[in-house]
Amino acid sequence: MDSTHHSNLTAAEEHAAGIEHEHPTWATYWKVAVILTIITACEVWVYYIPAFVGSRAFVPTLLAMSALKFAIVVLFYMHLRYDNRLFKVLFTGPLIVAIITLIALMFLFGHMHLGHVGA
Amino acid sequence: MSAPTVSHHYTTTGLDNRKIAIWAFIGSECMLFVSLISTYLIYKGRSVVGPFPHQPWVDPGTGQHFKAILNIPVTSASTFVLLMSSLAMVLALAAVENKGKPQRTLGDKILGSSKLWLFMTALLGATFLGFQAYEFTSFVHEGLTIKTNLFGSTFFTLTGFHGAHVTAGVIWLLSMLMIDFKRGLGPEDALNVDIMALYWHFVDVVWIAIFTLVYLIR
Fold first, then answer.
1. What was the ipTM of the complex prediction?
2. DSSP character for B189?
3. Chain A interface, mutation test: which of B83, B84, B89, most A Cβ atoms within 10 Å?
4. Could you tell me how many CB contacts below 8 A there are between chain A and chain B?
5. What's the pLDDT tens digit per position in B52-88?
6. According to the CATH classification, is domain B17-216 in 1.20.120.80?
7. Dihedral angle, C-alpha B169, B171, B173, B174, nearest 10 °
8. Using CB atoms within 10 A as the burial measure, which of A44, A92, B41, B164 is most buried?
C-alpha cells in the first residue's frame, strides 16, 4: 500500500508545505527495521569475539556498520532520499563540518593513529 | 475564493518555513552532539582513577575491586527499543498521511491507526528512558558519578543530554497523541507529525553513533 497520498491537499499545497511525493511503502519500513536489527546484532556479536576485538579491523568495522545504520535511518525513515535538496544541504553541511572538527581534534589530542581510535 | 486546507508559511524557496527550520535545527543539533562526542573521545582513556568503561580496576588505596562499568547486553536491548521506536514513528506518520483512505483488512486498520503507532513510539521512548535510568542508577551504585573521573564526567554529560532530548521527544509524542484523541489527526496535520518524526529519528541516529563510539569501541 502506497503511503504517499494527501487527499486534502493539492500538488501545489504539498510542494509549498515541503511534503515529498515519494515515500517508501510500509513494507519498506519493516524491511529497513529488520536490516537495522541485523546490523545491530552484528555489532554486538563482533564485540564478543576477542580475536576480532584485538585486530586492527575492529574499530573500522564497527564505524562502518554504525555509519550504515545512520545513513539508512536518515535516507529512509527521515525521507532525505526523497526530499528537497535544500534539506539535504541543511543536514549534511553541519554534519560534515562537525565530523571534520572531530577528526581534527582526535589528531590534535593524539588519539588517532592510522585510523585507530585509542583506548 | 475557497478556504485553504492548510495554513501556509511560504519562503522564497517554495518550501514551508517550519520544515526548513526543523532541518536547520537538526543540523545545529548535529554540531552539539558531535562536540559532546568529541569531548568524550578526547578524554577517553585519560581517567586517573576508576571505574573504567571496559576494564576492571582495583583502588590502590582501599583495595576495592571495580568491574568494567558498561553493561553491553542491557544497552543493546535499549538500542533495539529505540530503533523500533523509529519504525513505530514512520508508521504513525504514514497512518496520519493515509487517514481517510479505505481500510479493507485488519492489517490496513492496524497500520492505519495513528493513535496506536504514536502510543507505541511514546511507550518505546519511555522504555528507553527506563533503561537509561536503570543504567545511571547502577553506575552510581558501582561507584561512578559525574564527579568520579573524566570518563564519568563526559559519559554522563553526553548520555544525559541525549536522554533529555528523548524526554522532550516523548512529551512531544504524548502531546500529539492527546490531539489525536481529542480531534483526530488527518492529512492536513501530516507536516506537524513529519516535523516531530524528524526530531525523533534524529534522536535515534544520535544514539546509533553513541552506542558504537561509547559502548562498543574499546
1. 0.88
2. G
3. B83
4. 177
5. 888 888 888 888 888 889 999 999 999 999 999 999 9
6. yes
7. 160
8. B41
CA distance, residue B102 to nearest chain A CA (Å): 11
Sign of the torsion angle spanned by Cα atoms B116, B120, B121, B122? positive
User: pTM of the predicted model, to two decimals?
Assistant: 0.87
Residue from B9, B12, B19 to probe the interface with A (highest A Cβ count within 10 Å): B19
* CA A66/CA A40 separation, integer angstroms: 8
Say which residue the cell 547486553 belongs to. B73
Site of grid cell 518550501:
B15
Tell me how many degrees the CA angle A24-B15-B5 measures, rounded to the nearest 5. 80
- CA neighbours closer than 13 Å in the CB half-sphere of residue B96: 29
Q: Which three cell numbers stand for residue B18?
A: 517550519
> Given an 8 Å threshold on Cβ–Cβ distance, is A86 in contact with B42?
no
Q: Measure Cα distances from A5 to A18, A26, B210 in Å.
A: 14, 13, 35
Domain spans of chain B, in order of start: 17-216
